[in-house]
Amino acid sequence: MIRRHLGKLATSLAFSLALPLALTATAHAQATAYPAKPVRLIVPFPPGGGTDILARLVAQKLTEAKHWTMVPDNRAGAGGTIGIAEAARAAPTGYDIVMGQKDNMVVAPWLYKNLSYNPVKDLTAVAHVAYTPVVIVTQANSKFKTLDDVVKAARAAPDTVTYGSPGNGTTIHLAGEIFNGAARIKMRHVPYKGSNAAMMDVLAGNVDLMVSSVPSAMAQIKAGKLRPLAVTSAKRSTSLPETPTVAELGYKDFDVSTWYGIFVPAGTPKDVVTTLNAEINKLLATPDMKAAIIAQGAEPQSMTPEQFGALLKTDYEKWKGIVQASGATIE
């Protein structure tokens, strides 16, 4: 009888000890489920540009595939640095993420004297989404039929040929300055607050050229309103196979392109980074997502967080020299 009671007591005690552990494990799993609420995707440029297009594509496809709630939030200004700074200040919970690109992650830190963030220390690379060459375009009925026409005009009358860009300090702005140096010409840079404003002025003939990401220019190229003169990458763009590279046109080793990817504030839990990376990489592997990115003029490319972080660090150091050689600075 005593043995039976002791056995029941032991069983009861074991159950009472196991129950809190089980409840704790369940609560922990529920607490760490990600995402448990809407995720804000900060877009550091105005609506309609290449960054905005790709960010909204990622948000849309994740919502469709995973039923997550992704809320794009445009925080434009200062060459994309305002949005990145906001992301760097955000709580590292995974509920404030940002679509960064080469402009504001590796070029701006060497241009802006008082930038409030260090991209390598204050942000964590999550998922590379795409890369794209820069394209030099002009109005469809422009007098410039080829890139050589531009060079001849700029040499004949320095500082009279104008080119617009999405803003001071962007990769796109510097692509124009690097071409100035390679061609030994002086085109005048006209900065805008985002790609759309620059696009409107080149379409209206207020500036001669626009140096643009391919995604930003693609719709107007397809509509026949813009003429692409050259792309700045080492090889031709999949989206613009008939457009020559700058290197093909006689400027050896000319290669300027940009990339786009998702970042989170430093200190964000590793499981959140891993989850975001895995789901975005799954999307990038689907024919639908690949086609959508290529249709926008970009090239899809997935990476692990470690690979993307290494690319960030390499480009961060590389562009220090490029910016210093250009002499460009922004207060």
Specify the overall morphology: globular
Question: Can you summarize the main beta sheet?
Answer: 10 strands, mixed
Task: Look up the CATH topology of the largest domain.
Answer: D-Maltodextrin-Binding Protein, domain 2
Terminus-to-terminus distance: 87 Å
CATH class of the largest domain: Alpha Beta
Mean pLDDT across the residues is 89
Radius of gyration: 25 Å
Report the uncertain regions: 13-31
Secondary-structure element order, N to C: HEHEHEHHEHEHEHEHEEHHEH
Overview of the structural elements:
This protein is an alpha/beta fold and 331 residues long. It folds into 2 domains: 39-132 and 257-326, 3-Layer(aba) Sandwich (D-Maltodextrin-Binding Protein, domain 2), CATH 3.40.190; 133-231, Periplasmic binding protein-like II (D-Maltodextrin-Binding Protein, domain 2, 3-Layer(aba) Sandwich). It has 12 helices and 10 strands. Strands 1, 2, 3, 4, 5, 6, 7, 8, 9 and 10 form a 10-stranded mixed sheet that branches. Helix 2 packs across helix 9 and helix 4 packs across helix 12. The chain is globular, with a radius of gyration of 25 Å.
Quickly describe the structure.
With 331 residues, the protein is α/β, with parallel strands linked by helices.
What labels describe this entry?
10-stranded mixed beta sheet, globular, D-Maltodextrin-Binding Protein, domain 2, 19% strand, alpha/beta, 10 strands, 48% helix, BUG, 2 domains, 331 residues, Tripartite-type tricarboxylate transporter receptor subunit TctC
